[in-house]
């Protein structure tokens, strides 16, 4: 076997799923089809640039939070270099927004004292917004918007 074949074979093995023809016209990016920023034109996969949808690990659909208690919100995904807007809304209407954080760092976890303001307790869901293209305009084409499963918020224990 010649050296070039071994070199190319090693490259194909490392980057399975993307074409790997090393040329001056290489397109670096994410070729994972489940990534938010998947690009079918990518010729050289760079895993560190892949952005995946948010996945909530807490709350879950079985979570019951009580107003006034400290709760941990945890997640995976998004762009780690960009902050996240985190809000809670009524699950049936997506209205009655409570802003938990306007600019939380994407660290995968934030603690929050449960508050519903003047709204009623009940079925809620969180949503995250991340301005992926950093244009200051939130839209469903260029930005990452994800809702959690529905969970329950109860009134303060008396």
What does this structure look like?
By secondary structure, the chain is mostly beta strands. It has two domains: 3-49, no CATH class; 55-154, Sandwich (Immunoglobulin-like). Helices cover 8% and strands 34% of the residues. The chain has one helix and eleven strands; from the N terminus they run αβββββββββββ. The chain has one helix at residues 3-14; strands at 28-29, 44-45, 55-58, 64-66, 70-76, 84-90, 98-104, 109-113, 122-130, 144-147, 151-154. The strands form three sheets. Strands 4, 6, 7, 9, 10 and 11 form a six-stranded mixed sheet that branches. A three-stranded antiparallel sheet has the order 3-5-8, with no helix packed on it. It is elongated, with a radius of gyration of 21 Å. Mean pLDDT is 82; it is low at 1-16.
CATH architecture of the largest domain: Sandwich
What is the CATH topology descriptor of the largest domain? Immunoglobulin-like
CATH H-level superfamily title of the largest domain = Immunoglobulins
Radius of gyration: 21 Å
